[in-house]
User: Fold Alcohol oxidase from Violaceomyces palustris.
Amino acid sequence: MGLFTASPLLSNPASFATASEVAPISAQQAFSGTKTYDYIVIGGGTAGCVLASRLSENPKVSVLVVEAGGTNNVLEAQAPLTFGKLFKTDKDWNYETTPQRNVDSRKQFWPRGKLLGGCSSINAMMYHHCSPSDYDEWAKVYGCEGWSYKEMQKYFKKAEQFTPRKGRVPVDLKNRGSNGMWKTGHSYISEIGGKGFVGGCQEVGIPFTPDVNTPAGTEGVTHFMTFIDPNGRRSSAATAYLTPEVQKRPNLKIGVEVMVTRVIFDRTGSKPRAIAIELEKEKGGQRFYASAKTQIIVSGGSVNTPQTLMLSGIGPKATLSKYGIETIVDSPNVGENLKDHFCTTTILCKAKPSHTLDYLTSDLKAMPALARWMVTGGGPLTNNIGECAAFFRSTDTRLPVVHKLTKEENKPKHYGSDERAPDIELIGTPIAYIDHGATTAKPGEGIFSIVPIGLRPKSTGQVTISSADPWDKAVIDPRYWTDPEDNDRKVLIAGLRVCIKVAQSEALKPYLEDVPKSNDINNEWWPWCADADKITDDQLIAWMPKKSFTLYHPVATARMGTSIENGVVDLDLNVYGVDGLTVCDASIFPEQISGHPTACVIAVAEKCSEILANKASSSSSSSSDANVSNQAHL
Ligand SMILES: Cc1cc2nc3c(=O)[nH]c(=O)nc-3n(C[C@H](O)[C@H](O)[C@H](O)COP(=O)(O)OP(=O)(O)OC[C@H]3O[C@@H](n4cnc5c(N)ncnc54)[C@H](O)[C@@H]3O)c2cc1C
Assistant:
């Protein structure tokens, strides 16, 4: 076990795993015949980086983390505004859903990060605890004792290192963490967003709140906090938790550009026990194995985690049998209960180009901003796109615009996690956000984008497999807008009506151009250019699916529950039916939370690391077997 030289990232599996044509079948065989660690983390993404870092803090244990993608050391994963340039590259799993029957039968593009840091390296950096009642719901409604907001707060704080920024509305520092590994603060905010959009939200009755991440809840309109470091760089889970110092730890190995194809079990005992992982560098290539004495943790994210579990024999028996996979545990909830956040088509307002960031989509015009960012760490390239947002309830009677114009049968029910928790978010963006950023404003034109998001969907989807081949993509069917009450769409009608009023507010006017009035839903500026009071529900319903899109927040596909009947993992995140296997990522959320999930994933991973460390120390202190060694076997 020596210190690493050269790059600590290992892309040759032979340097951290053992080549073999056959998988080990017993713990004894695995631990004597393959490279062995105490912990193996599958996926060096958002949760995986936290786990690898925290577990390897104990120099007595050895940790291997294996990431299918490569390094996060690329400009687009560092300069906040540029993350969209990683979509559809080799840093993206580049998923697509099945055709969504209630969304014009369109397939939906689902980017997921395929690099160290996972989605936290390619996302919009919006830092959000969501609603405190979301976690109380986990505890009270889903029986997940130990996961209430009061209990989670400690992990949010443990993770965070907040740096106040001059010139920003001050926040109460008692609610912010100061000693954590993950850096948070405020990014560049445009005037059109910070004053125009925020002022517009206030005009319609949404109060300003400087901090949506406090025990007081998340209602209001805010200048979003981001995960940005004081040098203007993205603070992803990789940059925060796998720092150069952490990467050099002799007890941590980081494998990259290698796929974990399945988990291997010892089935000689009364209960199957996870003992090893199988790896491949490319489809049909040499197989490698690495073993774990203490625990294997699956952190592949909400799409890949259920896929890996199913390929390993844990999932609905009928699905596994269909593809000739031997069932280790018939676990009916693997891949089920999928919830995502879904947006309507974006409302586009024609803005004065000097007030938006559309010019930065031209590489040439972006050069001065790039130079500024590289030298000072400041300027518009630190904008995170989701710079300002508002959270409110679709049934809030203080927002009469929601109700006055909506037909009785289209009025939504509020399914927030408590009576005060939001079910709608509006995001205001100083740039054209169309087709996930792929369609830009015309040269010389400026666009301010506003979009509502349904935060508490009732539509429930599925992730499943289409074969036993790990290189075949998982099948994703979120079943958007299919809930029996059609409430998901009704919530968005309410959201759109508020958006339109904000778009037409006095506060935004000084930043916008004039366009001719039109009531034609095919006009590029509709519904901003229409008479808000004459827009019908039917028009909104016809328009909203045209370019509606995911907000990239799938959860719950390996959810935590009180038994295998309602969950995949128990309250310590152990997989039901086997020993030695944990899941830790967004897939374990029992229910969708009302906002942006990265902070929650990181808090969950902080808690999971603590659970695992406590478990190891209690079993080593109670173990009577003096030969059981916690030392690395590299
Ligand atoms: C474009 C975009 C914008 C977003 N914006 C925000 C935002 O502003 N704020 C916010 O809070 N959230 C945002 N999110 C959501 C948030 O980033 C994710 O919910 C969260 O990061 C998920 O963390 P995770 O650990 O569950 O999965 P991931 O971070 O996706 O990690 C999974 C990791 O496992 C790896 N992996 C998967 N399978 C294997 C395998 N078989 N072998 C080896 N490695 C494997 C993957 O490559 C990946 O690195 C956004 C997401 C996206 C995609």
